Structures are given as C-alpha cells and as structure tokens.
Amino acid sequence: MRPSEKLALADKIGRALQSKFGYTEIDLYLAEYNIPPPQGVMTNSKWVYSKEALKGVPVDTIIKIAEDLGLEQEIRAAHGASTPPRNWDGTNKFRLFISHIAKHKDRATRLKDCLVLYAISGFVAHEDIHPTFEWQREIERALYNMDAFLAIHTPGFKDSFWTQQEIGFAVGRGVKIISFKMGEDPTGFISKHQALARRNRTAEQIAQEVDAILASDQLTSAKLHLAKKNNGLFGDVDDQIPF
Prior knowledge:
The protein is 47% helix and 10% strand. It has 11 helices and 5 strands; from the N terminus they run αααααβαβααβαββαα. The chain has a 5-stranded parallel beta sheet, with helices on both faces.
C-alpha cells in the first residue's frame, strides 16, 4: 500500500471513529490494537484526534481496524482493488480464492469447475488472468475481493514464493482458510488448522465437503447462503417452512 493510500484509509477510519465513539471510547478502542493516545494534540475534532493516533501505525493494523469497522469497500479502494478480477466482475456467487502452484493448475481448475454447482466461483490465477492483464494486480484484486481462501497443498506448494504470500495475505485479512492436503502437509501460519484430506476422493466429493465447511462456518455461512439464494439453488426461506 502506497503512503497516500494508507493516509486515505486512515482518514476513513478517523471519520468512522468520530461517528461511533467519544474520546475516551476512541482511546479504549485503539488500545485493543496497542495504539496509545496521541500526545500533545489540541483539537476539538475526534476525526483529527483519531488520525493523529494512527500516525506510524503499521499497514496491517490499519487494515484490521478498517475491517472491524466495516470499511471493506474503503480498503479495496485504498489498494486500487475496488474492481474485482475479470472472472468475478458482476458475480453474485461466493468468491473463493484457490491457491496452487503452476505445475498443478489442472487440479485447481478441476476443483473450481466442481464448485460451480454450489454457487461458489473459484479464482485460479493461471486460468482466470488474461495474458494482457497485469498479473500481480489481478491477483491482488482477487485477494481483496475473496470471501474465503483455499490452499491446495501439492508437492512444492510450501516452496513457492507466490503461494506463501497469498497465505500471508489471507491470514492478515482474517478470512476463512481451508487447507486441502494433496501430497504435502500445510506449513507455517496455517499448519495449526486441520487439513482437508484427499483420501482418494473425487473432485466432486471434495467440492461437496468444501461447500459443507463454508456453509457451517460463521465467517462464511451467511455469504454462501445468499449466493445460493441469488443463484436459485433453493427457494425463499418462506418456501422451506412447512405449512
């Protein structure tokens, strides 16, 4: 994130804190992120006060605060990522980023195709980025617009610079992460999570389990339910109530 983008996001956070809290509450709220009150600031503006407190705060903390305050659109705008990647443009499906290494892109694509039945739109970088588009920028847009993250741990995944950056991004955003073990164990930040095992199952069966995981998790269940409803996978809630 460029300095100008960080300042713009801090400005939006300041506006949000101004509208929600008093001075004491702002101090208590920012203390949850280990941010001390600004020193020597003489102002009657809670907006200015908040921005002063945010000076020098790391970008990842700024993003976490913005997410907690419901400023997702502002985060995307600050990164120039308000526009989703091409294959998610205008979609009302659940958006799942599928992290993989280039050597096994066929497996990622196969799983993506099977997830369509559940109103889940996967992003597979080696398939979904048009050759004329800027590669890294499209990946960033997908990471900022994703609803959840799935890592396919095939041999060599842990050694990939790209996949490790994608994992770090997902961890930083706090989205739901699913690890799919396909020849390699998860390492690093996501090794603590139980991995989804292959067990000689088909891609269709794995897709079904991914859907079940997302449907039962509090981070993703509401968005997935809405995606299914918008795509006609079941009727309105009233239609499901016995009469």
